[in-house]
Write a structure and sequence with these properties.
Blueprint lengths: L4 E9 L9 E9 L3 E2 L7 E2 L4 E4 L2 E2 L6 E7 L5 E3 L5 E4 L5 E10 L5 E11 L3 E4 L2 E4 L5 E2 L13
Length: about 150
């Protein structure tokens, strides 16, 4: 029995013929209503690996996930079996979409989501180009700043 099902036993007594007794135990489950957890995905950066998991509350697994409206950021995909949004975004922007999940018994839940993807930043300061996670690169013909003193 799935973890989100509460087991309930019912006992029924019948009126049997004189001298006999009959009883029957009937077991059924009460399912928690299916819903999706609040969709609060992190922001992403163009060219940087991204992952976020849509979580289901209630219902009966397995679940099937889909995008029912809008679209994911370019470069990201939704795994229909796991609810994991992953990939490497290639275009910056704000992407709004709706995730839908269907459980084993046909229960449906959906939630609106939004993912913001920022572009990569390149700064040129005092003749040096600064890239995230890379060493500085000198620009030809410009003297670097005096790195021996604190600014």
């Amino acid at each position: 029995m799935p973890a989100n099902v509460s087991k309930v036993n019912l006992y029924a007594a019948l009126s049997p013929p004189v001298g006999a007794s009959v009883s029957k135990v009937i077991m059924y489950g009460i399912l928690a209503p299916m819903a999706l957890a609040p969709c609060l995905p992190p922001t992403g950066i163009v060219g940087t690996a991204y992952t976020f998991t849509v979580r289901v509350l209630g219902g009966v697994s397995p679940y099937t996930f889909s995008i029912s409206a809008g679209s994911l950021p370019t470069g990201l995909t939704l795994n229909a079996a796991t609810g994991i949004i992953s990939g490497t975004p290639t275009v910056m922007g704000i992407y709004t979409f709706t995730v839908q999940a269907v459980d084993f018994l046909g229960g449906v839940a959906s939630i609106a989501c939004s993912i913001t993807i920022f572009g990569s930043i390149v700064l040129t300061l005092y003749g040096w180009k600064l890239y995230k996670h890379q060493p500085c690169e000198e620009v030809e013909g410009i003297e670097p700043p005096n790195v021996d003193r604190a600014v």
